[in-house]
Inverse folding.
């Protein structure tokens, strides 16, 4: 017969396991279909497929220990830089905080970004899931450090000084004059008019999902293949960049 001391130990262990399961279920509930539907309505110009993948990746991160985010930024690099291709989403209310222009790296392409890298000095953007870190003031002013969560895809972001910062060349006046905005050294630079709002909404652990229909990444990303998804019923368009 198992003595009482061992019974108490087993009870504690089972209690901890049960609590952990409940916590994971609670985190996962934040990324259910109801939230997807709210966000789809709040950001109708954001591709359903891109939104679905952003939520899948975020859900996976939470299930593996990342603190459940309150906000999520989605960047769709399949769109030209002349388009407002950044969406900042509130995951607690299912609402859109803002939509704006965002730059890509100068070696990723001219108007369209087509090439991405995780290599320091490449001056290219990176795709995948990032977690926002701390704020700081640098030569671009108020800015936000990013940590890439995908090994081999974007995990050298901090080493590469890939940050969110404001830039004069991210402006509608550039689009009117050149047909595109300016390009960065790989950072997702935004307009100086919205930099504080973007940084203050993302700082301290919120998530940033940067998308491009790169087939190798789509097929191999552990954050996009994390088991059963709760996005059932989402739009079934393909990843051809034309959505």
């Amino acid at each position: 017969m198992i003595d009482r001391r061992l019974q108490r130990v087993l009870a504690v262990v089972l209690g901890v396991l049960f609590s952990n399961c409940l916590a994971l279920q609670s985190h996962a509930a934040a990324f259910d279909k109801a939230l997807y539907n709210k966000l789809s309505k709040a950001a109708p110009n954001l591709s359903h497929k891109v939104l679905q993948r952003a939520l899948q990746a975020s859900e996976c991160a939470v299930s593996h220990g990342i603190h459940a985010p309150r906000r999520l930024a989605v960047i769709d690099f399949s769109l030209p830089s002349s388009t407002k291709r950044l969406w900042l989403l509130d995951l607690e209310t299912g609402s859109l905080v803002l939509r704006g222009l965002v730059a890509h790296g100068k070696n990723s392409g001219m108007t369209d970004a087509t090439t991405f890298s995780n290599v320091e000095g490449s001056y290219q953007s990176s795709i995948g899931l990032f977690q926002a870190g701390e704020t700081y003031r640098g030569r671009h002013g108020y800015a936000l450090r990013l940590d890439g969560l995908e090994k081999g895809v974007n995990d050298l972001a901090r080493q590469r000084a890939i940050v969110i910062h404001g830039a004069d060349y991210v402006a509608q006046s550039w689009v009117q004059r050149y047909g595109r905005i300016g390009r960065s050294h790989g950072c997702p630079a935004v307009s100086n008019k919205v930099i504080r709002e973007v940084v203050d909404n993302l700082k301290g652990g919120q998530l940033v999902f940067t998308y491009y229909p790169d087939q190798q990444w789509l097929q191999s990303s552990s954050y996009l293949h994390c088991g059963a998804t709760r996005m059932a019923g989402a739009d079934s368009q393909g990843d051809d960049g034309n959505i």
Remarks:
- The longest strand covers residues 128-138.
- Confidence is low (pLDDT under 50) at residues 16-29, 228-243.
- The radius of gyration is 20 Å.
